[in-house]
Amino acid sequence: MIELIKLPYAPEALEPVISARTIGFHYGKHLQTYVNNLNLLIEQDSALSGRTLEEIVCNSSGSISNNAGQILNHNLYFTQFRSPKSDNAPAGRIAQAIEKQFGSFGNFCEEFKQKGTALFGSGWVWLSADKDGSLVISQEPNAGNPLTRGLKPLLTFDVWEHAYYLDYQNRRPDHLAALWQIVDWDEVNRRLG
Ligand code: MN
Question: Running DSSP on this structure, what letter comes out for residue 108?
Fold first, then answer.
């Protein structure tokens, strides 16, 4: 049985970057539906019960992989935010790693936004670390997660239209640019380990 995660903030806490209305649909309806779907699939396949989401994502295909992937991705997405700060910037080890690899936080944001904007259709743009600790920005279609290629996921922006359409309509690049104000870099540092 997979549980819907609890949000570590109130539904309106991310406004105006993400509205309470978007949280209501995105977390309350879309994520809940993926959780319900996966639990039905687990009931039909006893080999899945007791497995972690990560194990299911790395060892399945079809609807099981899609629903488990979407739950894992949304769990990482919703727990990486906190209330907006206009001068929000990375700190600690992730700040050093970004500077070393991309030259500056501004360059990094530009590449992240470009990859998120250019991803055709639905999917996710990810920041991950490889086994040597180098940072990687990747585009993953649909429910993709870089974990399946041995990378450690650190940060992700959801570019499915359900993530931004109520607040930004077709303006995906504006949504991606605004998200930097709410990234919880302490959480990203915890994931970096
Ligand atoms: Mn989503």
Answer: H
